[in-house]
Structure formats: structure tokens, C-alpha cells
Amino acid sequence: MHKLFLIGMGLVVACTACTTRVNKLRLPDLFVSEIDLTHDHRGVYYYGEKPFSGYAFELYENGEIKKESSYYEGKLEGNMIGYYSTGDTAYVRPYHLGEKQGDHLGFYPDGRPKFSYQFEQGLSEGIHRAWYPTGLLKMELNYQNGKEAGLQRVWRMDGKLKSNYVVKDNGRKYGMLGLKRCSKIDRETQNIDPYLGVQLTVSK
């Protein structure tokens, strides 16, 4: 619990540094297990009958920390941090008032980058990148206001392009399509898998 407390204090610093829209935000030093939290259809988390403010954690069977998150009045606020069973950081995902905000970063067990996604008020923004465990680039996608915009590329493990197309302002796609890409982030791996999901087609 001492380790968790120190990490929690770090979250307060990180949180207050990236949430200037919440004046003098202070999270209480309250630590609970995630299994003790409930949530409604709006995504508001409760501890008992009250919206939760504080820190929630999830543990591996061996007692090591698997994930910790911070909440403010029932909404994710600050960094959600995931860990491998070794204690190494698996991902860091910042939130503000329940929405994804800022740079979401993932790492392989050896510390190599796994993904780097950017969000603004819950919407994908800027460049989303993901890498294979070998370090080779897996995908590089561009977004504006939550929608694909500009150049979109995905590579196979051998380094060859699997998909390479451009999305224009009118929403039309030009280039090499046929990619199956998932629009959701896997909850366990925190990764966007570009080989699963809806088949893309050329816009008419």
C-alpha cells in the first residue's frame, strides 16, 4: 500500500499539472479496489452511493499492482496507469473529466514503445502510432476532431505496406485500401489492432 500511496501522490502532481480547467483540484487520499466501484450508463463511477473521488487499483493474483486510476466526482481524472506483473509500466493514459486527454502511451515489457495516441476532449487528434515488438512501425494514422484526416498507413511485420491511403476534407479516401481496422482500443492490451474490425471501402 505504501507503493500505491507514493504513486497516488505522483498522480496528484501529474493531474493538477494537466487539468487547468479544474481550479485547485485536490483528490482525497482515498484508495479502493476497482471491484468496489460501480458505474451508471453515463460512465459515472460510484463508491457506495456517492460519485467517487480518489484512487482505485486492480491487483494481480500475486498482489502486485495491475492498474491504478484516479477519479474526481465519479469521472476519470489524471493518469490511468497499467503495469506488467514485473512492475514495469505497460501504459499511461491521461483523462480529464472522464474524457481521454493528451498523450496515451503504451510500452512492451522490455520498455520499447507499443503505441502513442493523442486525444482532445475524448476525440482522436493528431498522429496515432503503434509499433511491433521488434520496434518496426505498425501503423501511422492521422486524425482531426476524431475522424481520419490526411495520410493513413499500416505496415506488415515484414515492413511492407498493408494500407496506404489519404483521406481528403470531403471524407473521400484515395489510395491502397482493403484494410480491416478496429475502431476500439482493446481493454486488456490498450492497443488499437489494425487487423480486426470493419472493412474499409473507397468513398464514392
Automatic annotation (TrEMBL):
<protein>
    <recommendedName>
        <fullName>MORN repeat variant</fullName>
    </recommendedName>
</protein>
